[in-house]
Protein 1
Amino acid sequence: MSDTAVTLARWEAEEKAVRAKQRGAAAIDVRTLADIPGIEVFKRVLAGEIPLAPIQDTLDFILLEAEPGRALFQGRPAHKFYNPIGSIHGGWYAALLDSALGCAVHCALPAGKAYTTLEFKVNMVRALTDRVPLVRVEGKAVHVGGQVATSEARLFDAEGRLYAHGTTTCLVFAPRSHQAHPPATA
């Protein structure tokens, strides 16, 4: 068995394990997530206590690993994601990269902090087709401050070939439920 085949078999097994845990995940009120550290949110997702984001089902990708300041996703480049010129649409690359970029930041946030993407940049360096069975995208936080966070991510296959890379800048803030409310006036 080739090194690539061994890697693909391992990647398939890791995805199967996460999907098995997700079968029992019940919907939650996302507003409650602001009260726990970001990394704890992702530990609960991976344990099957919190469901995956719906976009992961729509675009056939899945969160596989999370640690402080790092998130790893895996995706299946399928024909249904093709553009008119016969390869995977750039929007698919962007969605996977955006997820890894944002989740890397989220994994580094303390309880009581949230984020939103201000901008992100994607560089596609190689065409991707459905002949590539699986790809992974790894996001890593570069800087997480009180108001601004940045991260970078790389999208690659089982042979280590790079297909795209990107960066993001995120705004860090206290969610509305954690912001001070002015006193009521009569």
Protein 2
Amino acid sequence: MIIAMLAALATPSFIAMIRDRRVVRAGLYVIDEYREARTRALARGIAVLVHWQGDASGRGKITMREAIVAPGAGVTKGCATSDWSDGSADTRVVNEYDFASPTYELLNMTAFSDAGAGAPITDVCYSPDGRTSVRYADNGVMTPLTGVLKYEVLNNRTNQKRIVFVPPNGVARYQL
């Protein structure tokens, strides 16, 4: 009976701890996407793009796409010359995380451009030669990333904020 009472008392805090860890994990997913994209671009010699699309709920989706080398052509398209839109024959989806699912109900994620303005869309492209380009609109022009792109990952219940930084070299970092 004592064990049952202790289990009943611990269950709410255990559930809260699991939800808090999901918010932390969301920030780690963002970092992993950027690090994997950069590594993939350098290792495979192709352009790789990380696309963030925020939504009204304060969550959103992050997608990694890579350029496709046309068979027989041997020509690899770069960050500025690839068509990164959905359904394009130039690129393919490598992976994506959708934070709009109920799993992340405590999450609020906001992206900020390298100029510090809120950015509902960010595209960061890694070229095979190690350059990092960015744009803040689906049809915008890719420009070199010269500042620091930032994501604020907020836990709505505890108001704990973690920050993901993407500096000009493209190696994402996490701040608690």
